[in-house]
Amino acid sequence: MRGPRDDCLFCTLVRDADHVHTADGFVAIADINPQAPVHLLVLPERHVDTFRDVGEFPPDEAKRMLEFVAATAAHAGLTDYRVVVNVGPGGGQTVFHLHWHILGGRPMGETL
Ligand code: 5GP
Ligand code: ZN
Fold first, then answer.
1. pLDDT tens for residues 7-45?
2. What lines the ligand 1 site, CB under 6 Å?
């Protein structure tokens, strides 16, 4: 359950993709279909299907994941940005390995 899954795209990208930022247990990559000038994805190495199951992270790892999201945005030069997690198909989730979108580089305020 905790190890990488061979059939999971993001488990593969955690190992193989070009990482724009890394920390112990986490990587950030550029989204292949960017919705903003800066569109990064934060991927935990731990495979958790969805944010619904965020309780599967040990508390320290969950805290470090949030800190890594903030650190990745700062690393990309962003001070103002949007963080999005799509949860389930009805929430727009298409890859079932928990991930955080960081969107910025343009005014993000017009739409939710
Ligand atoms: P979701 O819709 O699950 O919240 O987000 C999945 C995201 O993964 C989408 O924004 C999509 O563009 C991105 N994505 C899908 N396949 C790939 C890929 O092979 N490489 C990268 N870098 N991003 C991907
Ligand atoms: Zn996975």
1. 999 999 999 999 999 999 999 999 999 999 999 999 999
2. 9, 13, 29-33, 41, 86, 92-95
Probe residue for ligand 1, chosen from 16, 29, 32 as the CB with the greatest number of ligand atoms within 8 Å: 32
Largest pairwise CA distance in the chain:
40
Distance 102 CA to ligand 1 centre (A): 12
Q: Tens digit of pLDDT for each residue in 32-87?
A: 999 999 999 999 999 999 999 999 999 999 999 999 999 999 999 999 999 999 99
* Residues identified as active-site: 99
Joined tokens for residue 21: 């930022």
State the pLDDT at residue 2.
63
Judge whether residue 1 has pLDDT over 70.
no
What DSSP string describes 5-40?
Answer: -TT-HHHHHHHHSPPSEEETTEEEEE-SS-SSSEEE
Which atom of ligand 1 lies closest to the CA of 35? 10
